[in-house]
Fold this protein.
Amino acid sequence: MGKVLGVLGGMGPAATVAFLARVQALTPAQGDQDHIRIIADINPQVPDRNRQPDAAEAMLGQMAMRLRDAGAQVLCMPCNTAHAQAAGIRKVGPPFIDMIAETTEVAAAGGAKKIGVLATPGGEALYARALQGKGVKIVRLAGPAREAFMSCVHAVKRGDLGEAPRAEMRRLAATLVAAGAEAVIAGCTEVPLLLGAGDVSVPLVDSAEVLAQVCVERCK
């Protein structure tokens, strides 16, 4: 028997649903019984992680507690930004898979010395610290490009996965490459809903894909 995975989701809903599909797709299985049991709390009501961090941490702790009490033995959260409030989850008890740490490990293992990050300001700060710890320089978006990135994220949250936000996300990734990035981290779980590996001229490290793979490894 494998371990039961608890997912703190809803940040945002589309990214969580896509993550759950990745876990299913990455699980080696011959039938239903070979798949991982997952208990998910898809909660879009988590307070804004940038503007209300304390309230967000409190709610994440409550979600983790409910997942634990429902039988979850391993916890994960497919939202990079909210990892700044992960202390509220860790104190609850079950092992928590750190998306930032796992993604940074994979990105740095590729040998790149300058890595671009497509992330919210909060997520970018987390990746900056993690990459620095690996001796890797972060390449960031700045000024209007940062605002354009957030517009793309908000487009996904309102259900727009059309060509306009896709083209903009490709442009932003190319901006990082032009600034010297030898690899790019999709450090926001909305990014892979607009951007694929074939859209970037350097390796694209998808944080949602990394997290899903680790979840499968820990729970199978």
The chain has eight helices and seven strands. The chain has a mean pLDDT of 97.
